[in-house]
Structure formats: C-alpha cells, structure tokens
Design goal:
It comes from Fopius arisanus. Belongs to the AB hydrolase superfamily. Lipase family. Pfam families: Abhydro_lipase (PF04083). It is a single chain. The chain folds into two domains: 4-90 and 301-345, no CATH class; 95-295 and 350-465, Alpha/Beta hydrolase fold, catalytic domain (Rossmann fold, 3-Layer(aba) Sandwich). By secondary structure, the protein is of the alpha/beta class. 40% of the residues lie in helices and 14% in strands. The longest helix is centred in the first third of the chain and has 20 residues, at 52-71. The chain has 17 helices and 13 strands.
C-alpha cells in the first residue's frame, strides 16, 4: 500500500491547481488537497483506502468543473457562488427539498414523527395523511412503506404525484407512513451515542429488522388505532422484514399483507459489481473499519451533492457516468431510468448506511445462505453459541406475502427470488414484471413502475381490504 504522502503527490500531479482569469480575477479551480477532502467526505478513510465508487465520483466532479470552466459558469472553486444562469446547469429544486417539503410542495398533507427504538436509536417517519381534497387520516387503512439500502423515505415521493408510490397510495385512500432506518439521512439520532461514535454504527440490517421495524410498527398502530396494517418495501426493506417476522414472529399478526419489491434474502446469483468486489475484500474492509474508524457509508451532502445535481442533468454529457455510479451496486441494462429525474434522485441518494449493512450482504453472497451477521468464529460463539452464524427461519414468516421482481435485477436475481418464495409458507402472489429490462432500482424510479408495480400493489391492497 502506498503512503498517504505519495498519494497526495500523485493527486497533485494529476489535478494540479489550475487558474483562469474571470472578470479580471484569478480563480483557483481545483487542487489535490480539495480532492482529498472530497474523497474523505464521502468515505471516512484516506484516498488510498477509499472504495472505488469515490474515485468515480471524483471523475464526475472533475468533468463537471472542467465543463463549467469552459462555459464560464464557474465563479468559485467550491461552487458556492457558481453562476448557473443557462438552463444546462440549473439545479433541480427537488434535490434540495426534504421529504416533508416535497410532500407539501405537491399538495399533500404531511407529518413528521420521531420513534425511539428499545436500543436508543431515534428514527424519523414521514406520514402522508392524504391529498388536499381528502387530508384527514381518520378511518383510512394504514400502510407502512420501507426503503432499501442507502435510501430513504424520499424514494417513494421523489417521482412526484401519480408516479411516486407514496402519493399514489394517498390518492387511493391510504394513510401512508414512510419509514427511515437507523443511520440514514433522517434517522441519525440516538439517546446516548453520536454518529462519530463507533458504538452508534455497530448494526446491520439485522438490527433494522429486530429493532427498527417493530418500533415503527408499534408506533403506527398506537397512534392510528389500527391494530393491523399493511407493509410494503423495496430491497433491504424486505430483508429487514424477513428478519423481523422470523425473529419476532408475533409481528406477523400485526401485518395484513406484505408487498415485497425486488426482495433480497439469497444472493447466490447476485451480479452486483460493487458487492462482488466487496465480498472478495470483506475481511480487509472489516480490518480497515477497526483501524481507521470507517463504520459509515456516508450520505451525499455538501459539495458532492451540488456537483451531482449539475453533472447528472440530462443534457450534461457526464450523466452516463452518474448512471454507472448508481448501477455499480444495482446493475446495468435498464431502459427505465427517467434521466430528467436523475439530478433530483442524486440530491438524496445515497442516503447513508452503516458499513456493516454492506458487509452483511457480502456475507450472504459468500455463504449462499440467509443468515445472521458473521462476527468471526470466536465472537460468533459468544453471541450465537456456535462458530458460524445461524440461518433465519423463513418458515416463521406467516404473513401473506406478495412479491414483485424484474428479470434484469442484478441484486434480487429471479432464481434467488424463486428460492426465497419456495421457503415462505404463505406466498399469495408472485408478480414478474413483463419488461425483460426491468431492474432493481426500477421498482423505485422506473418510468413504468406505476403501471407494472404500483397499480398492481394498490389493486391487491384493495382486495385484502374487501
């Protein structure tokens, strides 16, 4: 491994401070020090230990700044006062609005709720009681909707009315509760720890299943008076549900039906480039976490957020790079991405997670089992009374389950989905999206997600209500 000083010298030689004259002033555009700061802002490690994604984001950054310079749109090396006068570089407003602000902007009544888990994490939920024409929640059936890995409640509303699942459910007469898992943009509080503390980040999606989901379900049922509610989730949100329903079976009775989009439990056929690389080096990453304190996969913010919203606009030639960064985890080949929406999406994604969440998924791929977190033989024995982690008992997931999956999903591969459904005792329906190019993220932002997925979800929910 090269020393940090050598890396600094290399960065300086490639991305040397460059000056240009603008209105008679000499403006510094870019420096190696600045790049180093950006890299460590994305990941809590030095450049030489940062994951490959950060290097790609830096490429996006450099490309964008160079183009901004050529068009004369750059005033400051930090973009703090950048002129974005022409339409090519205007910010997408929704990239900078919170979930509550988005709900209000699009004409719906929203609420913010704080939920504290038994182990002290403070989670934020966003509620859509209804559109302005029917804003009251009283008497409506309740649905709890959960996001996936590196995502947040914004996923369900960023597409706007008639396209975002949260808004479509509200229009259909549901009281909608959007959850946020511990460690993401909205749920970073704790009664005892700060996000700079190692102890805060000692969780994976296992704890989201055993602690977060039960706490939010109890809060929802207590505040609405509905003893039973619906549950819908994407990706990691389905993983956490299977954990909860198998580890705390009593919660099966609190859910009328569970709708799982791109469900993840088994990863034998997973093709995600990012997770495959992580699987090969997971022990190295774990050691780096301990030595350097890298426990968090940071959410997008600050400078990177500004650059992403510029570089990833539809008319910008760097947008394909942005797409490739997103698809490093979820896979390529989809024809469903709404490119106009991409700057707004990247204003909120990635929303952050613990490093353990990613490592836990890599362990599933390596073991070819759906099992608990592998702490190493010694600690496994202390925690589990055995040298290897036990598998989750999916036979305990007795909730009626509806599954939606795509044929081009690199994370929730159809073969792995079928393996999952074969072990679930109460699968009500399996919905295969007919578009052969429909991928993992298309359940969230796909152009045809309302037609292929959301409308069918609502029809099935209405069936269970009748």
């Amino acid at each position: 491994m090269k020393s940090t000083s050598n890396n600094d010298n290399q960065i300086e030689s490639v991305f040397r401070t460059k000056s240009l004259t603008k209105n008679g002033k000499c403006v510094s555009v870019l420096s190696g020090v600045m790049l180093q700061q950006i890299s460590t802002k994305i990941f809590s490690v030095k450049m030489d230990l940062a994951l490959p994604v950060s290097r790609i984001w830096l490429l996006v950054l450099i490309s964008s700044l160079q183009r901004l310079e050529k068009t004369g749109a750059l005033d400051s090396p930090l973009l703090g006062s950048a002129h974005l006068g022409n339409d090519s570089y205007k910010y997408h407003e929704d990239a900078h609005l919170s979930a509550r602000e988005l709900i209000s902007k699009y004409g719906y009544r929203g609420e913010t709720h704080k939920v504290t888990t038994n182990d002290g994490y403070i989670l934020e939920m966003h509620r859509i009681t209804g559109p302005k024409s029917n804003p009251k929640a009283e008497g409506k059936p309740v649905i709890f909707v959960m996001h996936g890995l590196l995502c947040s409640s914004v996923d369900w509303i960023i597409s706007g009315p008639k396209k975002g699942l949260g808004f479509m459910l509200a229009d259909a007469g549901y009281d909608v509760w959007l959850g946020n898992a511990r460690g993401n943009t909205y749920s970073r509080g704790h009664k005892k720890y700060s996000t700079i503390d190692k102890q805060y980040w000692m969780f994976s999606w296992h704890e989201q299943g055993t602690e977060d989901l039960p706490a939010m379900i109890d809060y929802i049922t207590r505040n609405t008076g509905n003893e039973r509610i619906f549950y819908a989730a994407h990706s990691q949100g389905t993983t956490a549900y299977f954990v909860m329903a198998s580890e705390k079976p009593k919660y099966n009775d609190k859910i009328i039906a569970m709708f799982g989009m791109a469900p993840v439990a088994y990863l034998e056929h997973m093709r995600s480039p990012f997770l495959q690389v992580l699987t090969r080096i997971d022990k190295v990453v774990t050691n780096v976490m301990e030595v350097l304190g890298w426990y968090e996969f940071k959410p997008i913010d600050g400078l990177i957020k500004k650059v992403a919203t510029i570089a990833c606009q539809e008319e910008n030639w760097t947008q394909d790079i942005c797409l490739n960064v997103m698809f490093l985890i979820a896979g390529f080949g989809s024809d469903q991405m709404n490119r106009t929406l991409l700057p707004a999406i990247l204003g909120h994604t990635p929303a952050g997670s613990s490093s353990r969440q990613l490592i836990h998924y890599s362990q599933l791929f390596k073991s070819n089992k759906f099992r608990k977190y592998d702490h190493g033989a010694l600690r496994n024995y202390i925690i589990y009374k055995r040298m290897t982690p036990p598998s989750y008992d999916l036979s305990k997931v007795t909730t009626p389950v509806i599954i939606s999956y795509g044929l081009n999903d690199w994370l929730a591969h159809p073969k792995d989905v079928r393996r999952l459904t074969a072990q679930l005792p109460n699968v009500y329906a399996e919905l295969k999206v007919p578009n052969p190019n429909f991928g993992h993220l298309d359940h969230l932002w796909g152009i045809d997600a309302p037609r292929y997925v959301y409308s069918k979800l609502i029809a099935l929910l209405n069936h269970f209500r009748s």
